[in-house]
Specification:
alpha+beta
Length: 187
C-alpha cells in the first residue's frame, strides 16, 4: 500500500473556488470603505479650510467681513498661503485659485460656504486651464459638512469646477457685491 500525503486535484479546486468567492465578496467592500474614508478626509480638509479662513479674518484686518446682506467676502486657498490644506486624499493638489470660502451675513450672523476642488489631469497642474476632470465639494454651507449625506458632497465631475468668476451667478450670491480676498471682483 502506498502512503499518500498530498491533496487531490478536486480538493485543491474546491479551495481555489472558495477563495475566489471570498475575494468577490471582500474586494468591493474594501474598495467602498477606502473610498468612503477618502471622502471623509476630503470633508475634514474642507472644515480645516474654513477654520483657517475664520482665523485669517480675525488676524488680517485687510479682510473686511460683510456688514450687511448685500455683500460677500471670498477668501481663496491661494490667499491663505498655507500647507495645512494642500494635498487631497486622492494624491492630487487642491486648486489654490478655485478653492475658496465665502463669508456672508444672513439673519445678522455670519454664514460660511466652502468650495474645495482639485484637478485630476496628467500634468498635475490645476490652475493653467488644462481642466479635464475635477473632484470637489461644490459651494455648500459649512453646516452640510456634518450631515448624514456628507459623503455625497464629494463629486467627481466637471460640475464641481465652478470658477470664481461665476460666483455672482450662484443662487446664494446672486445680486451681492463680491469681495475676493481684499478686492472687489463682481457686483
Amino acid at each position: 500500500m502506498k502512503n499518500r500525503n498530498g491533496f487531490t486535484l478536486i480538493e485543491l479546486l474546491a479551495v481555489v473556488v472558495i477563495l475566489g468567492i471570498l475575494m468577490m465578496i471582500a474586494i468591493p467592500n474594501t474598495v467602498s470603505l477606502i473610498d468612503k474614508h477618502k471622502k471623509g478626509t476630503y470633508i475634514e480638509n474642507a472644515k480645516t479650510f474654513v477654520s483657517l479662513v475664520q482665523n485669517k479674518v480675525q488676524t488680517d484686518k485687510t479682510l473686511q467681513l460683510p456688514t450687511d446682506t448685500t455683500s460677500a467676502l471670498v477668501v481663496t486657498l491661494e490667499y491663505l498661503n498655507t500647507n495645512d490644506v494642500d494635498e487631497t486624499p486622492y494624491g492630487e493638489s487642491y486648486s489654490k485659485t478655485n478653492s475658496f470660502v465665502v463669508v456672508m451675513m444672513e439673519s445678522s450672523k455670519y454664514e460660511y460656504y466652502v468650495h474645495l476642488v482639485s484637478c485630476v489631469n496628467k500634468s498635475g497642474i490645476c490652475d493653467d486651464g488644462l481642466y479635464n476632470l475635477w473632484r470637489g465639494i461644490n459651494l455648500v454651507n459649512v453646516s452640510r459638512l456634518n450631515d448624514d449625506d456628507r459623503y455625497e458632497l464629494v463629486k467627481s465631475s466637471g460640475a464641481s469646477a465652478d470658477l470664481i468668476q461665476n460666483l455672482s451667478g450662484n443662487v446664494h450670491l446672486k445680486d451681492k457685491k463680491i469681495y475676493v480676498n481684499d478686492s472687489v471682483e463682481a457686483a
